Amino acid sequence: MQDIICALKLPLPSPKRYLCRMKETLKNIRHLSLAELENYFETIGEKKFRVKQVHEWLWQKHAHSFDDMTNLSKDLRQKLSQEFSLPALKVNLTQVSDDGTIKSRFKTHDGFMIEGVLIPTAERKTACVSSQVGCSLTCKFCATGTMERKRNLTFDEIYDQVVLINKESERVHGQKLTNIVFMGMGEPLLNYNNVLKAIDRITAEDGLFMSPKRITVSTAGVAKQIKQLGDDKVKFKLAVSLHAANDKKRNEIMPINETNNIEILIDALNHFYKQTQNEITFEYILFKNFNDSLKDAEELVKIYRKVPADLINIIEYNPIEAFRFTKPDEATTEEFMHYLERNRVNSRLRRSRGKDIDAACGQLANKSVNK
């Protein structure tokens, strides 16, 4: 290598920089299938039981380096480190809300920051995880929408979020996570393959072994991918961020509606339910003097009756500095909820959690990094 550099009269890189470049070109060992891992160990003449040991370290013991794999020989650990990389998320910052919500900022191996949230209640310990670095959808009420989408998260980075938030839940509450929601930064269905691979690992017996019924993927309404979820016969729940019950208003706050309007969305959701029989939830944030009238409630009921939805979550809005919206007063909110109840709509008012640390719905934006 040095001879080539000298022949081309290029400056010699520092040893540290050269090693970093070499490390970046190594294949991530967690991106190998079990069959590929078995094949590799066979080619280097290692016994088959070593494959199981390494696989356990990667997905059940959550090793973040090859040196952590203490039941492997030093020579084998060194060989693995020369052949593969093992990038992992690291906790960069932790903030605790007055209501017990905990927001963690994670740093990726290439220096990006994402956020995840632990939302504890007496009955549940829920992890809210991100699927992208930033977001491309530019919804007009969401802080993450003000960020440029840098890249998709890999399935192992999503998996790491769950592992680290679970560790926080065990540390603070002495309990494992009971639920996972893909409601953090990014649009999960625009990172389709990695999200599904992450859920496969989370639910696998040789992974976290969590029931898919305890996992909810939230989407702004990518109709094509919602249909694909149905065709793939997924077993997790689906939540749809509706937030307006007619196309005119939804176009105004959610640009995705211009190509995935409500009629198209309803068709996709009915296909999803027909294929999976899985629960569908609508998410609907109330904005003062925008979508909080009884006329809006009437339109919402009509949509609810066209889809086999299990629930409508009415969400308290969390003001974002960049946007004009505020939340309605309590009387307007109660009137809206009463209308839904009178029309036999299964609905629930979801109060905000973690507002004081920007961990509530729509507030994730790496605010402390941006500052």
Could you characterize the architecture of this molecule?
- 38% of the residues lie in helices and 17% in strands.
- It is α/β, with parallel strands linked by helices and 371 residues long.
- The strands form three sheets. A ten-stranded mixed sheet has the order 3-4-5-6-9-10-11-12-13-14, covered by helices on one side. A two-stranded parallel ribbon has the order 1-2. It has a two-stranded antiparallel ribbon with strand order 7-8.
- The protein is elongated, with a radius of gyration of 23 Å.
- It starts with a helix and ends with a helix.
Number of strands: 14
Radius of gyration: 23 Å
Unreliable runs? 1-22
CATH architecture of the largest domain: Alpha-Beta Barrel
Q: Given this structure, which CATH class of the largest domain is correct?
A: Alpha Beta
Any idea what the shape is? elongated
Give the percentage of residues in beta strands: 15-25%
Strand order of the largest sheet: 3-4-5-6-9-10-11-12-13-14
Strand and helix order: HHEHHHEEEEEEEHEHEHEHHEHEHEH
Which bin fits the share of residues in helices? 25-40%
Helix and strand content put the structural class at alpha/beta
Main sheet, how many strands, which sense, barrel? 10 strands, mixed
- CA(first)-CA(last) distance: 42 Å
Supply the CATH superfamily name of the largest domain: Aldolase class I
Total helical elements: 13
Question: What is the typical, i.e. mean, pLDDT?
Answer: 89
What is the CATH topology assignment of the largest domain? TIM Barrel
- Tell me the domain tally: 2
